[in-house]
Amino acid sequence: MKRALRGEGVWKQLEPFASEKRAVADAMLARISAEGPLAASDVAGTKASKGMWVWSEAKHALEWLFWAGLIAATHRRGSFERVYDLSERVLPRAILRLPTPSGVDARRTLLARSAEALGIATADDLRDYYRIPAADARLPIEQLVEEGTIVPVRVRGWRQQAYLHKDVRAGRRITGAALLSPFDPLIWHRPRTERLFCFRYRLEIYTPAPKREHGYYVLPFLLDGALVARVDLKADRKAGALIVQRAHVEPEAPRYTVERLIEELRFMASWLGLPDLVAAPAAVTDPLLATLCAETRQESVDLTSSLFGIVVHE
């Protein structure tokens, strides 16, 4: 936050609000102080944003104030829009009264938390957990090693130096199933996911459709401690259906993967309030649904009457 006040460490578009556009930011801060919580849509006027990433000057000013710690988010409207208020009206007084730690001390504490959460990790894994720049992580990691909070170790198959948290306990076998958001911590740092699970995952939302390998909004499937499949899903509220647009099973997935995945998809459809689970026509040719056909001993790709209740719409 101190860096942001100087215009450092922030997005390029926000830098001017620490200097030549500081008056704009100060005016925005004064307005929030007088009027109470505000969102970008409340202050953008006729120059409102024309899309999620096409921001008005008011939104840029708000984001710089937020990054600098002068305002905080109270809640969100809908799924994305932040509503801001003065930090002293959002954060508990007990927190505001605490002394501000030095940069090194703050990052050392965050990296220690990373190590505890991850158990075993490379330096890159540790710093990515709280998005700490590489240059800022070296000294705190050295200090954590020196004080014994983390222990340098080698992991078979890893080229990088790894670190083990001093309180880590041996893992136990995990059972259960879950569809993971693309932003789940388990898969957020892609290199670690690939190292641990041999599962290469990329977010393809911004990839042109013809170049997508697995789909637009792909959810990995975690089953009994392994990432065994992935599905590109779409919730069609008007049709009342959860649509499986594409689906893929990993080569080493157990034979019961498809059955468990269908169960989880049906469960997801239910808590989304969608009565139908639908396989899109393009998905029927996918290896996963071909496997489903084989396992249900159907020669046709028409799954309308399959015991899993998947409906294929022509």
Tell me the overall shape. Answer: globular
Which segments are poorly predicted (pLDDT under 50) over 5 or more consecutive residues? 292-314
SSE order: HHEHHEEHHEHHEEEHHEEEHEHE
Fraction of residues in helix? 25-40%
Instruction: Tell me the strand percentage band.
Output: 15-25%
Strand order of the largest sheet: 7-8-9-10-11-12
Largest sheet: 6 strands, mixed
Mean pLDDT: 86
End-to-end separation: 54 Å
Total count of helical runs of at least 4 residues: 12
Number of separate strands: 12
Going by helix content, strand content and strand pairing, the class is alpha+beta
Radius of gyration: 24 Å
Topology of this structure?
Elements (H helix, E strand, L loop, with lengths): L1 H4 L16 H14 L2 E2 H4 L13 H11 L3 E7 L3 E6 L6 H4 L6 H16 L1 E3 H7 L4 H14 L2 E4 L8 E4 L11 E3 L5 H4 L1 H8 L20 E6 L2 E11 L4 E9 L7 H15 L4 E4 L7 H9 L15 E2 L2
Parallel strand pairs: 10-11, 11-12
Antiparallel strand pairs: 1-3, 2-3, 4-6, 5-6, 7-8, 8-9, 9-10
Helix pairs in contact: 2-4, 6-7, 6-8
